[in-house]
Design goal:
Elements: E1 4-9, H1 13-23, E2 29-35, H2 38-48, E3 52-55, H3 64-74, E4 79-84, H4 89-98, E5 102-105, H5 110-121, E6 126-127, H6 129-143, H7 157-167, H8 172-179, H9 183-197, H10 202-211
Parallel strand pairs: 1-2, 1-3, 3-4, 4-5, 5-6
Amino acid sequence: MDKTRIFIIDDHRVVIEGVKSALKNEEDLEFVGETLDVVRGMAEIESLSPDMVILDISMPQLNGVAATVKIKEIDPQIVIVIFTMYSNKEYVFDLFKAGVSAYVLKEDPIENLISAIHAVKTGGTYFNAKVRKVFLDHIKELETGGKGGVGIERLSKREREIFLLLAEGRSLRQIGDQLNISPKTVESHKYNLMEKLKVKKVVDLTKIAIRKNLIRI
């Protein structure tokens, strides 16, 4: 029997050990690697070529959306299971567009993660009930002619990336290095997104991100 080869990235050791313990009796699954460092994880994924990556969203250096994009660039066939504490609309849509196959919340019973893994390993999908509600609410909004596009939802994907990095306290140069763009381009995006969000100071971006539970404090 061919086993599904799994790699896990989470910046909390207790989460990694908990997932491995929960899946230890699943004979069709095999852990091939793990890391607390998402950047290091990209290199290891390229080297190990796992079938599946279990990925957190909010991590130092690289958030889950950017990490998903990079993993899909390494190998589009790698299946990605998001395992996180966040179910924010902004994350859900960006991750869905980036190509994740499952979205499980850490508040769920661990059996939900096991179900998600088995669903996606055979080509299916799995989305937590809260995440499904995000999609349903969005569909209802479209059907009823809701205007939407308010606040963060108005930002482009690149602007959202820069918004989160600015909110986390990164400098223009640090953001540019991470996203492979110039500091001047970062600054241009910064002014555009601040205008859309109607704020004048970077500290206000941090306040918005905290209020929407997009970053940890």
